[in-house]
Amino acid sequence: MKYRRSDLNYSDERDLQISELRERLSQLSAASLRINESLDFDTVLQEVVDSARTLTGSRYGAITVPGEAGQTPHFIVSGVTREEHQGLWEMPQGRGFFDYLSSVEEPLRVSNVEDHLKGLRLPEFAPAVPVTSLLVAPVRNQGIRVGTIYLAHGAEGGEFTRGDEETLVLFASQAAMAIANARRHREERRASADLRALVETSPVGVAVFDARTGVPVLLNREALRIVSCLLSPNQAPEKLLDFLTFRRADGREISMREFSMAELLSAGETVRAEEIVLKIPDGRSVTTLISSTPILSDSGVVESMVITLQDMAAVEESERLRADFLAMVSHELRAPLTSIKGSAATVLGSPGDMDPAVVRQFFRIIEDQADHMNDLVANLLDVARIETGTLPITPEPAEVAVLVDRARSAFNSAGERNSLAVDIPPNLPLVMADRRGIGQVLGNLFSNAARNSPSSSVIRVSAAMDGIHVAISVADQGRGIPAESLPLLFGKFSRTQTEEQGGDTGLGLAICKGIVEAHGGRIWAESDGPGLGARFTFTLPTVGAAESDTPTTFPRNPGASLRRQQEEARERIPVLAVDDDPNALRYVRDTLAAAGYAPVVTGDPSESLRLLEDHRPRLVLLDLMLPGTDGIELMKDMLALAEAPVIFLSAYGQEEHISRALDNGAVDYVVKPFSPTELLARIRAALRRHEESDPSASYNSGNLAIDYAQRRVTLAGIPVPLVGLEYRLLVELSANAGRVLTYDQLLRRVWGGKSSDIRPMRTVVSKLRRKLGEDGKNPVFIFTEPRVGFWMPKGDDEAE
Fold first, then answer.
1. Rounded distance between C-alpha atoms, residue 380 and residue 508, angstroms
2. ω into residue 673 within 30 of 0, thus cis?
3. What is the CATH number of the domain that holds 230?
4. 374-407 per-position pLDDT tens digit
5. Residue 624, φ and ψ in degrees, nearest 5
6. What CATH number should be reported for the domain holding residue 444?
C-alpha cells in the first residue's frame, strides 16, 4: 500500500505540474494575443506591462523603452496612480536607479530591494510606492535591447519565484516582437504622413493612377488647381478622363474617347519633362510640363503610374513679357540710331557748305542720341550685374542730405520742369551708401515721378528713422497706381511698370530694387489709387547703429561728426561668412551690414582660407554642409590659421550634428531659419566670450611676470630667454589661467593643429619648467592634468 500511495503521490504531483504548465502556457498565449491586438505604440506598451503583472501576480509593473534620437525614454506603469507614476520618475536618484536596472543584461530577481542596493553600494532612494521584492527582465528583439520590464511586490510582501522569472523571460521575448512591430508601424505611419504632407504642399502637381482601373488614387492640391480651369461647376476632376484630349510635343493627339485611361497606363511609358496640352471639347486648354514614371510589380506588370505636372502659364507669360521687352528695347535702340544716321547722312550728303550753326545742331542731335543709347545700354548691363550678383557696390558713410542734394542737382540740370521739395531732418545719422548707386536710385525715382506727374506739380522728398535704417521717400501727385499693380512694379518685364513709366524701358525700378537690396535695405511703393499720386520709399542702414544693445544716440550735427563716424566705420568688426546658398549668404551679408559689421562673404569654401588670412575677421559664420568639403574639417583648418571664433549656421538641427560641431571647436550653432535679432545676439555673445579670454596687459604669479605688450618674461626680475614655441605656449596657458587646456587645444592653438603627437609638447613643457626653475614633480607655475592637458594658476590680481 505504501508503494502504491507513493506512486500515486508522484503521479498527482506530475499531473499538478503539467496542469500548472498548461495554465502558464495558456496565460502566456492569452497575453501574447492581447499585446498583438493593437499596433498603437503606447497601447502595446501598456498591454505589455499589464500582462506582465497578471502573469506574475505582482503589485506594481513598469516598462521603459529608449526614446528616439536622444528623446526622453518612454516610461509606462501599471498598478499605480497618476501621482505615483510621476513620483516614480522624479524621485531622488530615480533616474540613476532605473539606469542601473536597464543596464542589467540578465534577468534580475531580488527578494529584498534595500539589502540589494546596499550590497551594490548604490545611493539610497525613497520610491513613491513601497517596494519589497523586485523582478527585472530585459526585452530584446534580434539581439538588440528594446526595453526593460520591472515588476515589484508592495508592502504586503511576497517574493518572486523561479517560475515567475521563467514566465517573464518567455513573455519578454514575445513582447519584444510586439514592441518592434508597433514601433515599425508608427515609423511607417509617420513617414507616410510626412510624404503625404510633402506631396500635398508641393508646388508641382502630383497624380497617382491605379494602372488596372485607370482611376486616380491621389491628386494633390497643385494638380487640382492646374485642371480646375477645365472643370465645369461642381464637376469632379475624375470626370475629365471621359473626354480629355492630350496633345503631345510631337503633335500627336490622344483622345480619352478612343482609349481608356487603363489602356494608356498599361503601356508603362516613361515621360521626361514633355510639354503636353490638356484640352476639352469646348476649346478650353492648359499647357503643362509632364513627367511620368510607372511603378512595376515583381513580375514586371505596371501597377500604378506617378505623374508630375507643372503649369506652363507663368512660363508662357514670362516669355511673352520677355518678347515684349526685347521688342521695346529694339525700338528704343533703333530710334536714336535713326536720328544719328539721319543727321550724319545729312551733313555728309550736303552738296555745298552748310551753315556752321546748322552743323552744330546736327552734331548736338548725334550727341544727345548717343547719350540716350549709352544710358539704355548701361541700364541693361546693370540689370545683368544685379541678376548675377556682380553689381559693384562700395558702401561708405554718407549724409542723407548730401546724397539727396546731388541727385536734385543732376535732376534739375537735365531740364526737368517739376520742382523738388526736400524735407531732411538735421539730426539724421550717417548711412552706409554707395554714392553713385544711391544717386542712380534717387535719379530714377525723380524721373519716374516726373513722367507720371503734371509738370507744374511738386515732387516731395523726405527722410526719417526706421529702426536701425533711414527711410527715404519720393512722393508725387501724379496718376497713381492701382492696388493690384503695386507688387509688379519692380519686375524687369512688368507691363504695368512700363505703362506707368510712359514708354520708358521699364528697367529703372528693377535697377533701384537691386541697388537698394545690395545695400541691405528694401524698397516699396504705396498709392491710394489711380489719380491720387504715389510714394516710393527705400531704406539704407545707418553707420554703427547696431554695435551695442543700447539705443543709439544720434549726433545733433552730422557734419561735425562725419570724420569721427568715418573712422568708426573703418574700424567695423570684420566677419567672414561662408555659405554655398546664395540666398542665405545674401541674407547674412545684409544682416551684418545693417548691424554695422564689415561682412566678408564667399560661396566658395576653397576661397575661405585666403579670405581669412587677407581680412583677419574677428568671427566666422560657417555653413555645416558645403560642396566638396566638410564644414567641421574647414573649421579645423581655419582655427589652425587664426583664433577667430566659429559659429555654424545650418539647416541640420539634429543633436549629433550640434554636439559634433561644438566638440570640435565651434563656439555656437544656429539652426536655420533664424531671425536677424537671434543671429546678431549670438555674434555679440561669441565676441564677448572671445574678448574675455584674451590676455590682459600682463600676468603676475609669485616672482613670475609676463609682459604681453613687450613680449618679455622675467623671474624675480631676471629676464628669462624663451624661443618662439616656448613663449607661445606660456602665453596660451597664462592667458587662460585657472582653466585646463587640453592637449588638442594646445596643439591647435600653438602648433597649428598640424600633428596629433603630444611628445613635442611635453618636451617644450619640460624646457619651460627648467627655465622657470621648477620640475614636473613639484610644479609652481605649470601643472599637469593627467591624460588631459596643462594649466597655470590664476595671477595674483585675479586670485585676490
1. 10
2. yes
3. 3.30.450.20
4. 777 777 777 777 766 777 788 888 889 889 988 8
5. -75, -45
6. 3.30.565.10
pTM of the model: 0.42
Identify the residue whose cell numbers are 499538478: 16
Strand order in the sheet with 646-650: 598-602, 574-578, 619-623, 646-650, 668-671
Measured distance CA(286)–CA(223) in Å, rounded:
12
**Cα 168–Cα 173–Cα 177 angle in degrees, nearest 5:** 135
- The CATH number for 657's domain is 3.40.50.2300
Residue 755, number of CB atoms within 10 A of its CB: 11
Provide the residue type at 382 as one letter.
D
By C-alpha distance, which of 133, 130, 155, 129 is closest to 56?
133
Q: In what order do the strands lie in the sheet with 458-466?
A: 419-423, 458-466, 469-476, 534-541, 523-526
Scanning the structure block, which residue is given the C-alpha cell 511673352? 320
Q: In this predicted model, what pLDDT tens digit does every residue of 311-349 receive, in sequence order?
A: 888 887 777 767 766 766 676 677 678 778 888 888 888
Last residue of a domain, one of 155, 189, 223: 189
In whole angstroms, what is the distance from residue 536 CA to residue 135 CA? 77
Residue 555: inside a domain: no
Sign of CA dihedral 229, 230, 233, 236: negative
| Residues above pLDDT 70, as percent of the chain | 86
Angle at 354 between CA 353 and CA 359, to 5 degrees: 135
The single-letter code of the amino acid at 15 is D
Cell output for 265: 497606363
Helix extents (H) in 600-675: 605-615, 631-641, 655-663
Q: Largest Cα–Cα distance in the chain? A: 161
Instruction: Note the pLDDT tens digit of each residue in 191-201.
Output: 888 888 888 88
Residues of the chain falling short of pLDDT 70: 1-13, 15-17, 20, 69-70, 87-96, 120-128, 321, 324-325, 327-329, 331-332, 335, 387-388, 414-415, 492-506, 544-571, 691-697, 709, 752-755, 798-800
